[in-house]
Amino acid sequence: MHRRSWSAELCGSSRAGESRAGGSAVPGLVVNKIAPGFLASVLNGFPDGLVIVSGSSGKSTTTKMLVAALRAHGVAVFTNQSTANISQGLTSALLEEVSLSGRIHGDMAVLEMDEGHGALISATLNPRVVALTNVMVDQIDRFHDSDMVVAMLARIANRASGTVVINADDASLTGLAERLDGPAVIARYGVTAEVLAENPRGLGYSLTASERMPAAGGVLLTSVSGRSASVLLEGASFDLELPARGVHYAVDALTAIAAARAALGDRFDAATACSAVSTIPPVFGRGEIVTVRGHRVEFVLVQNPASFQLNVDSLEPGLDQVLVAIGSDVRDPSYFWPVDTSALGRVLIASGSKAHDIALQLAYDGVIVDRIEPDLGRALDDFLALPDPVHGIKTIIFSADSMRRTRAHLGLASNREG
């Protein structure tokens, strides 16, 4: 490694040790400034190559499932455990593991990458497999339309030397695949018409791609019920257990299995992959159930209209105690107005910096809102002081900003390992 990178690595490792408990990206920011080639040098050095997972949503859960599937096949995998998916976060994750020789123990690297930051550093990376989840108008303050997201994902996908794994039911991704000019082959996964008919809201999929899937030799989702699902793979059906309810988690599992198949080639065993995927716990707020102050609480993270709709639709009907907290990350509250929240029926507290906005939306959908409390800490304290609900468990639906504030207020882990 170049002398400059050595100095950067040593400096960064020291800073990483100081801030590791908080999951800080500061060490990565320092190293990226003084040794901009460090990140690419390490990531491109794994014997079995680099796998990148990107897309609008589902990246964290897909990455965790994919890592489990690869490790079940005996592959030593390095991954960004904290799911820090921007360049400085990735560098900080590397600094925690890199040796003085500039290498990390492992056969393969599997990294979740933010679309924007992944596109910025893609020219320096040589991934063997790129797995793309979907394209949505997500984080509208950063990505103003889906064409911008497609262009960024295309830059990442064009760097793949082996396989680009795409959601065949996402029209934006199928269009992207047709325009790629890199050397990679395309592997597809999708859902059946029956699954789509049972889950008509939120996914935004077409039927045409999934109907062609069996002939294309892809991985196909054939059924979803709560936390259970079935997939068709290599002519056989396999059952899966999901980390949380909902067809979107089943699609994440599908992405992971298809990516593992592409990464492993002839070493891939479908039963081993499906069994491993079935063992992972929820990822940091995504259907996670925790015990706080003597109560079991389910955390439901909503990051865009699609995830909001799918999560509301998958909740157990008639929940007694629901708190909805929308924070400053949702800069334009009208972003969530396409979501039909009527299935919630009743919300005890609407909170967060956008408490009044989400309460108005809920009211228009016919949801009874007992109380509006912008002070999230006070709302959480009062919510958790209530006795256990008669039906279901306490449920907190929050945006990313409110999720972070909730975890900090309740003294829960601040990293994203979930």
Automatic annotation (TrEMBL):
The protein's name: DUF1727 domain-containing protein
Domain Lipid II isoglutaminyl synthase (glutamine-hydrolyzing) subunit MurT C-terminal: start-end pairs: 301-381
Organism, as annotated: Cryobacterium breve
Residue ranges, annotated region (Disordered): 1-23
Highest rank taxon of the organism: Bacteria
InterPro entries assigned: Mur-like_cat_sf (IPR036565), Mur_ligase_cen (IPR013221), MurT_C (IPR013564)
Mur ligase central domain span: 53-260
Bias type Low complexity, positions: 12-23
Pfam families: Mur_ligase_M (PF08245), MurT_C (PF08353)
